[in-house]
Amino acid sequence: MKGIVVFESKYGNTRRVAEKIVEGIKNIKNIDFDFKTPREVKPEELAEYDVILFGSPNHFGDATRGLRKFIKKLGGVNLQGKKCTFFDTYMIELNRMKAVESMRKIVEEKVSGMIVIDEGLSIKVKGLKGPLEEGWDKKSFEFGEKIASKI
Hints:
This protein is α/β, with parallel strands linked by helices. It has one domain (2-148): Rossmann fold (3-Layer(aba) Sandwich), CATH 3.40.50.360. It is 34% helix and 21% strand. It has helices spanning 13-28, 65-73, 98-110, 136-148; strands at 2-7, 32-36, 51-57, 83-90, 115-116, 121-124. Strands 1, 2, 3, 4, 5 and 6 form a six-stranded parallel sheet that branches.
């Protein structure tokens, strides 16, 4: 089994969350993961993976433009039966889960056959550059374990 995390992370906070989620998954299942930004991977390459995690910082109440555009391009790729979920980082409570919801909506509307296995995870960042909220590592690791139980 093979997985990929497609993410954007300007200050490294979203990447740290991604790494901790994958750590949690690997605690339960032996899955190799690649970490790539939308610029580093072609949409058709996702067909090679069994599990796909999408991660984005919250950008004005939405996922980043680059990630939204990338996910929209997946409509032309056969991802039948591929499992996915989403995570984001946010600064103000109003934006909690907003990027997650945005990415999930695009997948549900544009990418047929992909299976969304969880509603997602949202981790608070205390300032523009961080740090992440206290307990972010435990939440992320446990989210990874939960994902592992669904794949």
